[in-house]
Design goal:
Shape: globular
Distance between the termini: 66 Å
CATH superfamily: Glutaredoxin
Radius of gyration: 20 Å
CATH architecture: 3-Layer(aba) Sandwich
Number of strands: 6
Order of helices and strands: HHEHHEHEEEEHH
CATH class: Alpha Beta
CATH topology: Glutaredoxin
Mean pLDDT: 91
Structural class: alpha+beta
């Protein structure tokens, strides 16, 4: 192999390695810390969303949050941090390293997807996607709502929004209407 070909191969290998490094997901701790810092600066809360590419309900959750009728409400009140976790075999490279451990740390491991957590700007967990009986602490396992769709799930999500934002009743009703569209009618 002559020197020009060798240099070309090395350049291609370096470029490929650099491209792979640039698309690798950031560690979950970095994503959360950046969101917490931004939330503190902007006087908002953090909505941490855990999802996977194979999860249909995760896609519905993302679509609902991005619905043009309600997206401004979320943008005004939250810094949204997205985490990829529990990917299917062969797609593990899409996961944020440490995302599963982050779910475990906040008592939300193995609860299904999507899972969502609300943090204040000091990284205190203030609400999550698990429904628990009244008065039961967040450190106790509950039942994951996932993407709110049924009336009781939407009501729980709205209660979490009330607890974590300055959204008014009109805005909360508009959000509830968007999420209610996710219910599968049989």
């Amino acid at each position: 192999m002559n020197i020009k070909k060798l240099l070309f191969v090395l350049l291609c290998a370096f470029t490929f390695q650099n491209a792979i490094a640039q698309i690798a997901p950031a560690p979950a701790s970095e994503v959360l810390n950046a969101a917490i810092q931004k939330a503190a600066t902007e006087k908002k809360q953090v909505l941490a969303m855990f999802h996977a590419s194979w999860c249909g309900w995760c896609h519905k959750m993302t679509a609902s949050l991005n619905d043009p009728a309600i997206k401004p409400y979320f943008d005004k009140n939250y810094v949204i941090a997205d985490f990829v976790v529990y990917e299917s075999k062969g797609k593990e490279n899409l996961e944020n390293p440490g995302a599963a451990e982050l779910l475990k740390k906040y008592n939300n491991a193995d609860q299904g997807l999507p899972t969502w957590l609300f943090f204040d700007a000091k990284q205190n967990l203030i609400a999550d996607s698990q429904v628990r009986p009244a008065g039961v602490p967040l450190s106790t396992k509950g039942e994951n709502v996932g993407c709110p769709a049924k009336p009781d799930e939407v009501a729980y999500f709205i209660a979490c929004l009330k607890k974590t934002s300055k959204l008014n009743e009109k805005q909360l009703n508009e959000i509830a209407a968007v999420f209610a569209k996710n219910e599968i009618k049989r």
